[in-house]
């Protein structure tokens, strides 16, 4: 609804409130969704008016709008449920559970189970989490506080919680003003007019009864429209009442997750006063030209017109900034269909043509770097349809080419089924990456998307679908089906961390999709029902579309996302376009479209054509065009199969520099050949920007980000461009920052004493900074999430809060009896930002970062802790560097030191884990680095830093280590130097030593992307290094961020975890400064030194001959390492491919030979069920009941239905396992010791005795192997599989299922399948169970004196299926009726619930008093066990820790056991390996193999 209509609603609401029409006002609030009346909402909740609460809330949001809305609805339903339970209204509670709460089970199955279990409790307060639940009134009050917080942060409610400030009776005032206006227009106005009605315009009757002229036709008014009638209310541009459902649908379904409505308010409506405009547009020129109303002064009318909500400041750019000058003509050779400039190296142009060719051009030198023709890479993998199409015509046109956001990948969409994805490695190195048969017919568009940091490819095609593919593996992630015609284009985007996709079809329909399988969220028409493309402005805040229909009519418009309406329609497109008009946006200011053999430009805020150019003629009728990312260049297609490159002044300067570099290259070719290629030690990230050549002209805006197209990835086979390097080395200059105006700096607020900082770190979320002072006090600064800071991350633009909990306590380390001069303070932050480990010379403290409370203390000195680091895989393990030079691996959970590492000679000052290499690197005050294996904690290598004897006063100062993003290269920081080492051998690759011997390095750290190194010095300066070369890129003096104070300098540096250009300095006076560069960054990258080897020293010491020998050895060493790495990579890639092939299997493949389902009716007795288990040799059976009378276990609805009619035949209400039967037998409340009485109860009464029986799991046959493994890795032993499911488009686990037949899939079936494919898993299962972390060391056991009935009770108590039997000891007093710790005890047998299948029900009564060990021997003689492949329960299945996983799987499958006991050489228990453990480690290993691809 346009903004004036919205304001009218507020006026009506005020009127209703003043007239006491409360209920009507609430109804209007609910129906319009413009104002959420929090007071009314509170009253309804306080009074328990739940129906009204839900109804009112539904007017603003639905439960699935976002996670905040879901939480709001859940809390309300949960409170209703608890109140029903509190009133002992179990029937009402059950109704709420099934009707209202069940919908949430899809999102959190475990929580739904726990809520269901409350029905079984006499008082739900017995649940630990609800033990503090008070009475209804207090519970509602507490819930209300939580709901208000959720509503305030929910984007759906943004701008809906505050009623606008209005003068009293504003609507009446406006009506009176309108009447006064009308009265002024009366030809025969009377002094005291009588107003009788508002239904028609007021007129004063003429003296003789003649009718006064209408104000509309009054010649004095000219063209002024009739006022007072609100002519603009309801105007929606092209969305007229006939299509009114479209905006409504958009507002209801998508406005909450797309844009903040206020940020894209409808300017066309709100810009002008009511009644003064006859059109929907309100650009400033038109408004200023309109006639002003009577009674308004000329000064008032000439005030500048402002646009409410408009936040686009475009005064920085003018039309002169548009690239309109023709710089170059490129001959492509065939008709250009699509183009895209490289996002980083912005003079690289990717082109696709009508004959299937793609090319990469260096537009500065007019050089074609890469050319590829259309060719199917793997004919054998093509569908028969595609093969038949290719047989008739083997060519295809390119419909779309596009780069990924970092320029590492490029995608090509062809007119025949296929999408190709290439990886680009600089220069002419283009490698095939993925071939996807994406659609049936033409693939019309392609785009890259990166939701949740996963790179995906989005495609659309003639088969009317949109599909999403994993850009790494090529696996399909989603298929969106809903268009009625071929889908023409896609536009993925993300707002407020919610990713979505717009799609358009050739029939003019526009739809929007979330990354789920719930269908389109909006459905409306493009202007003119045109075939349309959509694009956002550069800053991502404004949405535009452009297209043409069958009649040749073209439309280019801006959309109001929050209302689903066209915001403005731009004028100037031709009436009869040839083909579909293409367009592009640039600088968040301008639009450009190719039309009528011209390029037409618009200012985004003005609907009139800004300018049009023909680019010296020769353009295509509707040319293809594309801007560079910074808007300095524009590529336009011509009618002679060519491309024109247009440029502005900055673009021309850049292109001429490249052109001159290319001309100069021939002059230095011989010198370049002599010096050889430039060598870089290890590759940088793909996001690295190329070296800028625009530094010579510092005034040129935005050119600093434009790079020459040298290979920024530093691959060994890139052809040298020495001429470029020589040219760049002449013009490059170190960036010096001396003034505060040259950077963005913020000193954080601080009320503490000015005590020196010793440690500092950003939280992992990036929203806070934690620091530790010399006096053991912690300080925490938090940035708030608000309209100025939507992400809530640290920034130099906004002041954070020096945070303390409401309790006022401080996080302070224990420093009693400590000499602070000798203490080495240290801390470490957990990965989830919840806990801090810290020490300042005394005990290590574990703090809760939310409450500042001390959770525990440990490790009292001596020795004292000097450095702390969390284990990357388990927060319960920490590495502690000690003052006595040792490193202790400590388990916080059990308060035990697991390992003690010795290798340093002085105290440990640094620790860093590498998850990729599985190593720990340590550094010490002895200037030594050590690498340790995380498997057995043995030392792998050690190296001493190469410290010049005369450069630093203290050669044994602190040394710290940080891992590069690749987790292979290590940054070592010492007062004398910074150096790069390669783990685990710790070979020194690069070293930088200050030229001034008195310049002390105080700290250094990698940036978040590991492309830069931030280093601080004792003189207060900060250096920014290029991480790959250790060349200084930028130097910041102390005066740039701090008033001159020679006694203050930075002692610690911290890098923001996700913003590469942001870092913080901790000073000796306790202050913290956050530093960020100006818009152009930290200056241009320095050119690599010509002929420089992999190791660079700033001192340049040593003879030339020695240097050459050293470099030669290093090159040879690097070559060997490269060859070894290549072999490892090839082996890993081969293994990954075989793993990928295996993962293509589904549950249907695993179930190929499964027999029919064994089940029991709900009326069967427990004895009948036990006999069924025995007869069919199974461990569990589903229980079937008539439909409509039962709630399935865990709220499931799994039914068997007729295949033809769909009529439901039976309902599976749960699963009964041997553990359920065992638990029932052991329960003294069910018949005491009378086994006969216990065994005649109906089986339906014991469902849920074990955890597995609480839910009935189903797996769709199309579920992937990986998802199936995930389920079974979490302790689920079996699931039902519908063989002909009636549920469509379902994969994975479901709560609702309908099919005509089912099969049972178990963990054992999965293990058998994996065993059959052992050859494809050889590199995983060849590792030992110890290496893979498969062993569970928590082993509960019974001893050989435990009786059968006691053993059964032990199984029931711990909900275990089996326990080991260990030898009792005369030296230890233990209760044989209880479970004991079996670790380290002699294993003699296994007692399992499945052993009961070895005896008929009639014999079980006499065997219960026997000892469990005797029982296993007796039952082994049972004929029932003789039928089980010769396996006896007396037979022990064990393994040693070093046994390969493949042999353990063989034991499991061949012996048909569900666990293997792990014993040492003496037969003492070490742990166990369960089926869940095996599936878990295999799944993790398979995922890691996929990452290789």
From TrEMBL:
<dbReference type="Pfam" id="PF00400">
    <property type="entry name" value="WD40"/>
</dbReference>
<dbReference type="GO" id="GO:0006355">
    <property type="term" value="P:regulation of DNA-templated transcription"/>
</dbReference>
<dbReference type="InterPro" id="IPR048419">
    <property type="entry name" value="Topless_Znf"/>
</dbReference>
<dbReference type="InterPro" id="IPR006595">
    <property type="entry name" value="CTLH_C"/>
</dbReference>
<keyword id="KW-0677">Repeat</keyword>
<feature type="region of interest" description="Disordered">
    <location>
        <begin position="1076"/>
        <end position="1137"/>
    </location>
</feature>
<dbReference type="Pfam" id="PF17814">
    <property type="entry name" value="LisH_TPL"/>
</dbReference>
<feature type="repeat" description="WD">
    <location>
        <begin position="436"/>
        <end position="479"/>
    </location>
</feature>
<dbReference type="InterPro" id="IPR046342">
    <property type="entry name" value="CBS_dom_sf"/>
</dbReference>
<dbReference type="InterPro" id="IPR054080">
    <property type="entry name" value="TPR1-like_2nd"/>
</dbReference>
<dbReference type="InterPro" id="IPR036322">
    <property type="entry name" value="WD40_repeat_dom_sf"/>
</dbReference>
<dbReference type="InterPro" id="IPR000644">
    <property type="entry name" value="CBS_dom"/>
</dbReference>
<dbReference type="Pfam" id="PF21359">
    <property type="entry name" value="zf_topless"/>
</dbReference>
<keyword id="KW-0853">WD repeat</keyword>
<dbReference type="InterPro" id="IPR054532">
    <property type="entry name" value="TPL_SMU1_LisH-like"/>
</dbReference>
<feature type="domain" description="CBS">
    <location>
        <begin position="1431"/>
        <end position="1492"/>
    </location>
</feature>
<dbReference type="InterPro" id="IPR006594">
    <property type="entry name" value="LisH"/>
</dbReference>
<dbReference type="InterPro" id="IPR015943">
    <property type="entry name" value="WD40/YVTN_repeat-like_dom_sf"/>
</dbReference>
<feature type="repeat" description="WD">
    <location>
        <begin position="901"/>
        <end position="942"/>
    </location>
</feature>
<protein>
    <submittedName>
        <fullName>Topless-related protein 4 isoform X2</fullName>
    </submittedName>
</protein>
<keyword id="KW-0129">CBS domain</keyword>
<feature type="compositionally biased region" description="Basic and acidic residues">
    <location>
        <begin position="1120"/>
        <end position="1134"/>
    </location>
</feature>
<dbReference type="Pfam" id="PF21889">
    <property type="entry name" value="TPR1-like_2nd"/>
</dbReference>
<dbReference type="InterPro" id="IPR001680">
    <property type="entry name" value="WD40_rpt"/>
</dbReference>
<feature type="domain" description="CTLH">
    <location>
        <begin position="34"/>
        <end position="92"/>
    </location>
</feature>
<feature type="compositionally biased region" description="Basic residues">
    <location>
        <begin position="1108"/>
        <end position="1119"/>
    </location>
</feature>
<dbReference type="InterPro" id="IPR027728">
    <property type="entry name" value="Topless_fam"/>
</dbReference>
<dbReference type="Pfam" id="PF00571">
    <property type="entry name" value="CBS"/>
</dbReference>
